[in-house]
Amino acid sequence: SEHDLVHEQQAKLALLCRRTMALSVGRGMFTLASSPAELVESLRLAPLDLKGRTSPKAATVELDTSAFPPDHLMWPEFHNGCASALRLSPPGCGPVQHGELGRHWIMHNQPKARQHAYAGFLLGMGLQGRLNSLANTDVYRLMSQGHHVTMMALLVGMAAGKRGSEDPAIAKMLCLHIPALHPPSFTELELEVPALVQISALVGVGLLYQASGQRLMTEVMLGEIARPPTNELLGCRESYSVAAGIALGLVSLGRGSDPGLADLFIEDKLGSYMHGRA
User: Fold this and answer.
1) What pTM value is reported for the model?
2) DSSP secondary-structure letter at 43?
């Protein structure tokens, strides 16, 4: 019947669209640093085409997204934006056309739509160290929009650009989004930090303090791995623990024999966590 034919077309198209949604990850790796950065050109984002054609009439069929969750394009768009940024040559690499890409170019290319793609673009620019050019007002403008994925990308991207530097300004921004690092007076402010932002801030701490063996950050990350679940973290408790573990590994990278961390008994505590004991 016609209903069965439409159902079969949608099933095949959905399968093809899954592949299309994953292409941006591969494109980011394949085209890494392959295009010179041109200041006079606007950001080019590849479209996510979720249409197909039937044979032999070549009629266009659009994917019915009514059965998908509302945010089903969130991460494909994010990866698409990140791939577009990673395609550009990093600062100091390759020919430079009309100057390096700075804060004005980054802020000018913020689209009115496709906010998730722009968040991925920010992460890609951060991985290249370009977000270091942003002014404090630019960072505040982006963070105050309340878009969780943009906040996540900005925290990780700026920490990656200052990897291992322990930059105090970036450290303050990251600590502000990790409740475990708040002073006791912060409880009166009732500062609510989304779970996704907390998780990204943990990863950012690991990048910013990479191989430093910083005592406070090591101790906090070790404790956060076994942090009891709270209301805002019930749905992503495992992600939070993994992020804290990654941060702990980065901060203590190459510091296994550091006498300043010996009394934390990191190996013993990690072994207890592996056996389900806090």
Assistant:
1) 0.88
2) P
